Fold each of these.
Amino acid sequence: MAEPRWQREGAEPDYRFSLANERTFLAWIRTALALLAGAIAVIQFLPSSALSGLRTAFAAVLAIGGTLLPVVAYRRWSAVQRAMRNDRPLPFTPLLAVVSGVVGLLGAGLVVLAVVS
């Protein structure tokens, strides 16, 4: 695979920062896998009930999040690499707040769903 054009911009950053950025990217990939596993767990292990449509919706949100997160994580990784190469401030991302909020809401909803079932 050919290197992206932006990798020829600026100067090569300190390898420690590049490796730290890569570890962060891999943590996002692990999070995406956990979201996908959570979707499977919701469908398989929450009891069927009158709220089964809600159960399916929770699983769908987890699965969609687990599918989209690697794309967003790659974009974030490359933006940070570009910023480091060009000696610019690291870009802001609302991703942490969004993922935290969605997972928190889903967790609370799943507790309610489990109690009601």
Note: Residues 13-116 form one domain.
Amino acid sequence: MPFRIFYRVLLLVLCSTALSVYFASHSIRTVAVTTLTCSLLLQVAYFASVLFLIWRSSCASRAG
């Protein structure tokens, strides 16, 4: 997944999460904590997918 697409999806998910948490709790502190947590989890998932692609590429080059 190109970074540009990842960035757009990241912004969309974070904004929708922030809005839904704010309307549910009416707490800015909860919104900030939830948004930061969601951002961290999404970035970890992106990093893991990049590592998986690198690992898969190295396995394919060894086999071929």
Note: The radius of gyration is 16 Å.
Amino acid sequence: MRVAPFAISAVCYFLFNAAMFAGLEAQAGFAAPRRGAEIAVFAGNYLAFAALSMLQFNLVANWLVICVLFLFEIKWAFRCPWRASLLCALLVSLVGLGANEFARSLCAIAFDVPQSAFSNDIGEEGNLKTVPVALGFLLGALLLCVQRRVLRHGETAVVYGNDRSRRFVLAMGVLGYLYLCSILLLYYVDVNALVVKVWALKASVSVFASLSLAFYYAYRTAAVIRRSEERRLLEREVAEREHEGDKLQDIVRRDELTGCCSRRFAEARIDELLGRGRPLSLAFVDVNDLKGVNDAGGHEDGDRYLTCVAA
């Protein structure tokens, strides 16, 4: 077993792993990862890649195992909810798988060899798997960096925060991932046909394009729903403040005991009517012997006397 190709692919995978961590922290709104998590995840995943290759697992099983590893690793590293971790693991795995398939198909065309030359049987003489794998991880790291540059305004966190949008992207991701896994079966067919290689090349591009459109649609939907919720909350807050303002105004312009309007309100109302040139009448009412009622029965009887007259 040659060490140099594995060392090169390890460096490329380290770049992919670093781009994944940077993207998740910047876009998904996750907390900073645990100390040493990036190195631990890189070592664990690359050892898993190497072990699966040496055990000559089928490529489909290989990538399914890696997706499950990503699920638990992202959950552990970022302490995020399971549903967010599942979507992140699926999307990261899909980027890695799609980039690897694109690189393998491109190398198969460039080297004019069948795709079986890049199977998981690294013990087979002439197996060139490490070349497209290294290129695939480099391409995957580049795609994750481009995604981080394009999605700079919390779009990913918006999608994660909406159940309907998250489920839609998850469903599209699962379909795309299963489709790419089915394309992996071509690497066990010893056919050196250009049309087959171009078909596999097209599959990766199609999945990336369809998933990008699905994510854009999910983001727009989630953004509209979030703005609607924010508008409803704002309207409710404004209505509550208006209600509080009306209550305060009512307290200011009305006498607490009798419920009659206060003198300040009456003066303001008179000024308003006079300013508009409206006719008005002003009547004064004298309450007979209020002092005598207060002296005889106390202020409580006096208050009842006033409320009865006001009523």
Note: The chain has a mean pLDDT of 84.
Amino acid sequence: MANLTRRSGESRMPSHSIFSDFFSDVDRFFDKDIFNAPMRWRKQLEGTLPAVNIRDNEKDYAIEVAAPGMKKEDFNIDMDEGILTISSQKEEDKTEEKENFTRREYNYSSFSRSFSLPENVKADEIKAQYNNGVLCITVPKAETKEQPKKKINIE
């Protein structure tokens, strides 16, 4: 088309094709917030929940919760019917007053994580420590009795 010349009275050909308009409209349609909202909500939720590592050791389960900037008094750890729940609620109110202005800021954060523990744990011996921004929970395992092996005959 570069070799074609324009006759007088003819309009110029558009520099883009009808397909590029169609695909750009389709792209804009899928870029709308309605399609990205669930993914964005999930990212926001994950952003507020602390990261958790769980290790299955020989004698216990080790649960590590990354929660920097908190104090051990900020946490609640409960065990109820095989469910271990770690939660926290922290509320801060900062007020700064100077000659001609007052600044007041509120900060509220909370989270709750629950874990179903297996039956082979000693719930009464669970221990927790908070050091350097990491909450470490040790869940000791109960000794399991091995089931005796038995040969079953087929009749």
Note: The first strand starts at residue 52 and ends at 56.
